[in-house]
């Protein structure tokens, strides 16, 4: 046991005499930011943009009447609508969330409980982009017979 203690002490003493090989100076802290160099469609920073959210009812929650269940929008129908009506108007990108929503029709005693798709698009706040959003809403109502598509928007600052 004593020999292990002596050996350990010798290793410690020898390590104190050793010199480390010279190393390069540490690199300065990175100054990169989350922004990248942008282009006209995806600026590195921009003001005057909005976040538009569109809420689409795609079918009743389980337990709804049979009549309403036959009105449900399939995933294939939803994707076709996106491909035909939304993507051509906003080819640079969009986001879709699956959600749950409630809607009280005029004169109804209880709200409809709906499976919902929420479409989020960040875009410039221009007359053309607002017209694109309105065209999407109108196309959905015509294709499905639904009463409305809720549109909410808020100002955002973007950076790509």
What's the CATH class, please?
Alpha Beta
What is the number of strand segments? 4
Please give the share of residues in helix.
Answer: 25-40%
Look at the structure and give the mean pLDDT. 79
Strand content: 25-35%
- Oligomeric state of shown chains: single chain
Secondary structure tally, helices:
4
What attributes does this structure have?
4 strands, Alpha-Beta Plaits, elongated, disordered N terminus, alpha+beta, 160 residues
Structure description:
- The protein is α+β, with helices and mostly antiparallel strands and 160 residues long.
- The protein has a single domain, classed as Alpha-Beta Plaits (2-Layer Sandwich), CATH 3.30.70.120.
- 31% of the residues lie in helices and 29% in strands.
- A hairpin with an 8-residue loop joins strand 2 and strand 3 (112-124).
- The protein is elongated, with a radius of gyration of 30 Å.
- The termini are far apart.
Topology diagram in text:
Blueprint: H1 2-17, E1 46-60, H2 66-69, H3 75-86, E2 95-103, E3 112-124, H4 127-144, E4 150-158
Antiparallel strand pairs: 1-3, 1-4, 2-3
Quick description:
This protein is of the alpha+beta class. Helix content is 31%, strand content 29%.
